[in-house]
Amino acid sequence: YSRLRLILGDQLNENHSWFAKVDEETVYCLFETYSEATYTRHHIQKITGFFLAMRAFAARLRDLGHDVLYFTLDDTREAGWETITDAVDAVRQREGVTTFEYQYPDEWRLDQELIKYSEKAGGVVCDSEHFLSRRHDVADLFKGKDRYLMETFYREMRRRHDILMDANGEPATGQWNYDEDNRGRLPAELSIPAASTFERDAGEVVELLERHDIPTMGRMPGGRFTYPVTREECLEALKDFCGNRLVYFGTYQDAMTRRDPLLYHANLSFATNTKLLSPREVIDAAVRSWKQDPERITFNQVEGFVRQILGWREYMRGVYWAKMPEFATTNALEHRAALPGWYWTGDTKMNCLNHAINQSLDRAYAHHIQRLMITGNFALILGAHPDEVDAWYLGVYIDAIEWVEITNTRGMSQRADGGLIATKPYCSSANYINKMSDYCKDCHYNPKKHTGEKACPFNSLYWDFLDRHRERFEGNYRMAFMYKTWERKGAAQQAAILERAAWVKEHAEEL
Ligand code: FAD
Ligand code: SF4
């Protein structure tokens, strides 16, 4: 071979121009490495998912006629290759390959590793051809600004890609944003369709991880892995979502229930983050479904979905490249508390957290509002150190890759970015959780009480958070109402609430 092309575990896009024709001089390489399996403590299903998808992708490329060298964790460990560039270098020497090519990695860590290696040993980088924006589009759009408003970027993307626009270049229906319609509470009688799953025995990968002492978190009930790992399966999952769940995606986007982990969400983030599905085809499929049946799938459902992918997903990636590596160490609120140990076990009496965490440990999945308003909200108002919060989120979810994990966690959820992403902190008391979920019904704690043994810990922590950050947030017009409510409570009640919060913080492990 004269050319080695590296395929990273999250670059499984068979429609990339690399694969347009078969070239006998080119060999494609995929490596399962110790460094990738251990850069954080990953969920067992996350590593399993990546390895299975990489293996299936190698088989697919071979079927298409390409030459592929695949190295399992056994192979790379036996050869003593710790990192991806160790492995690339060794294979280049072994095969006598002169040219090395790779696609832009999405993680800062790997970007740096490959830049350094290429400076020393030569390397040509090309686009991953995955995103609808370029790495630096967000940085360019908001140059010199303290706040990066997602809505501004989203509208720009709608225009640029002509998605949900009318013939005059105006938003279809005349309205950009349907957020107001997308905060519905789930009616008890509404049925929730079961989503397609793609069961396979993951025993072989689990044994491999055990053989190499790879530390993991979470569980894989029955040893069965259920996420789609081939392109065919991902396309089936997309069809299932558009046919069965898009119909209520927007309306119940913020709802939470013990009845079902997924509700009307897509569960496509693993497929898109590994590049098995492109964001454009996912958006096009949803828009097509709406156009085919606008009576059933109303505009707010499809706009809500497009906003997540064309807006939030692309925007978060842009924020990542605008702000790394500083973003990874920001802690604007100077939070220092430890994240309670039960985040790793699910063993807490708080129903909402018990449910959201155990679901995450069992499925490596929680939907956005569970991540933001249950686990994220609690960590924020407790004052947990963003490093600890990041470590948990980067490990626990199957879709957790740093560019989209850290921006959501440290930025949107923990506000460690000082408000770059969000106009106000995503904090709430039990009131919001009780309104949007069925978690509070038979909880050990009382969502209405602020003080006393059975008072919901969210309540005192919420006011304590606002009180201790008063200087920072009091002037924020979106929070003025909350501070007025706090004032109205009077000194005695305030003192009792803050006393309860102090107790909660001190006994966080036992809640
Ligand atoms: P749906 O609700 O069905 O949304 C459809 C798609 O839109 C998703 O698949 C995803 O690609 C995209 N999307 C939606 N919201 C966001 C968002 N805020 N940022 C970027 N893309 C979005 N997403 C990840 O992919 N990886 C992560 O590691 C991750 N960590 C998060 C951590 C926290 C604290 C929070 C609050 C959110 C995080 N998100 C992350 C964003 C979001 O929660 C997930 O993308 C979503 O829950 C995935 O499930 P889904 O496919 O069912 O999403
Ligand atoms: Fe969560 Fe509090 Fe409701 Fe219990 S009462 S489920 S702890 S919000």
UniProtKB/TrEMBL annotation:
Gene3D superfamilies: 1.25.40.80, Deoxyribodipyrimidine photolyase-related, DNA Cyclobutane Dipyrimidine Photolyase, subunit A, domain 3, HUPs. Pfam families: DPRP. Keywords: Lyase. SUPFAM superfamilies: Cryptochrome/photolyase FAD-binding domain (SSF48173). This is Cryptochrome/photolyase family protein. GO terms for molecular function: lyase activity. InterPro entries: Crypto/Photolyase_FAD-like_sf, PhrB-like, Rossmann-like_a/b/a_fold, UV-DNA_repair_photolyase.
